[in-house]
Amino acid sequence: MVAAVPIARVVRSGLEESVHLGHVAVCDVDGRLVGRAGDADREMFIRSCAKPLQAAVSLAAIGVEALPDREIAVMCASHNAEPVHLGAVRALLERAGLGPKSLLTPARYPLDPDEMARSQHAHPLFSDCSGKHAGMLLACVRAGWDTSTYTRRSHPLQRRVARAVERATGVDDVRAGVDGCGLPVHGVSLRAIATLYARLGVPERLPELETEAARAVEAMLAEPYLVGGRHRFDTTLMQTVPGVVAKEGAEALVCVSLPEMGVGVALKVADAGYRAAGPAMIEVLTQLDALDAGQRKALEAVARPPMLGGGEKVGSVEPLVTLRRR
Fold it and tell me: Helices 156-169 and 51-62, interaxial angle, to 10°?
């Protein structure tokens, strides 16, 4: 097992206070490792970074032309539960003829601080995964599957998702678990996740789901705000760099698809310290020559987020990651 490597540090008033370790894998559509830092073979759950593929499986039952971009984008989202997100989730449920009570997501408060302050109670609709669940419920209604058991591994929809993960990653022995939202979650190596993201950018490399995966990616690029929301890394990156697909996942896993380069990037912060993910990923994209000067400047607040003292900037989170190229 290869040790985690420094990927970001926290500097306050000129003193290095903390260092975050992590792993990075950059793979092409054939699964070849073209860059790495740390252990590219470290196994982990894909968590919410699987949502574009899960949405593609749902779209296979719903129909790729049946939904507008914003509803498909929220199916791929780990959203803030801002009004625009909740409106898209409700629209999916209405298409299914169902209400929020059909969602099997745990009750949550919105991720967005302003929306959280306005919320009087937790609700399944506020879950950052409610869009994925609403899309799955609509798929179940369209396919005639049971809507009360859609989170079980034995459900027809979840069996299709598991098969899609195997084919998209090229992994036959996918580890199974339970995600925070209650759905099955799939464990593979970091390089397998990077391969998945390379193939999302070249969807003809996704067997049986080419059209659906292309539609999911198209919707994410058309409506990046629906994928995350205010002050979210994936939304900000997609709004700044045209054609790049980005997705955040729990435990500080962040993935990016670079279709023009034919590669995918998967980055995991070892201690799940999410503040390190943005700076490290921007540095990886810079080393891959995926960002021009204007884009790097526009992403400066993400690449080096400020550390505050007394309300004033006194330091920043700085990247340390160095890719080893192959």
Answer: 130
Cα(163)–Cα(207) distance, integer angstroms: 10
The answer to whether the CB of 91 falls within 8 A of the CB of 71 is yes
Asked whether the CA dihedral 285, 287, 288, 293 is positive or negative, the reply is positive
The answer to whether the predicted template modeling score (pTM) of the entire model surpasses 0.70 is yes
Q: Are strands 5-12 and 253-258 parallel, antiparallel or unpaired?
A: unpaired
pLDDT by position in tens, the chain (length 326) = 789 999 999 999 999 999 999 999 999 999 999 999 999 999 999 999 999 999 999 999 999 999 999 999 999 999 999 999 999 999 999 999 999 999 999 999 999 999 999 998 999 999 999 999 999 999 999 999 999 999 999 999 999 999 999 999 999 999 999 999 999 999 999 999 999 999 999 999 998 999 999 999 999 999 999 999 999 999 999 999 999 999 999 999 999 999 999 999 999 999 999 999 999 999 999 999 999 999 999 999 999 999 999 999 999 999 999 999 87
- Between 3.60.21, 3.40.710, 2.30.38, 2.60.40, what CATH number should domain 5-325 receive? 3.40.710
Q: What does the DSSP 8-state code read for residue 101?
A: G
Residue 194's closest CA among 40, 1, 3?
40
Distance CA 135, CA 61 (A): 10
Q: Are 66 and 212 in contact, with CB atoms under 8 Å apart? A: no
CA 242, 244, 247, 248: dihedral to nearest 10 degrees? -80
| CB 120 within 8 Å of CB 150 | no
CB neighbourhood size of 196 (10 A): 30
Q: Rounded CA gap, 53 and 72, in Å?
A: 12
How far is it, in rounded angstroms, from Cα 209 to Cα 113?
36
Q: What does the angle CA 264 – CA 267 – CA 268 come to, to the nearest 5 degrees?
A: 150
Q: How far apart are CA 217 and CA 210, in angstroms?
A: 11
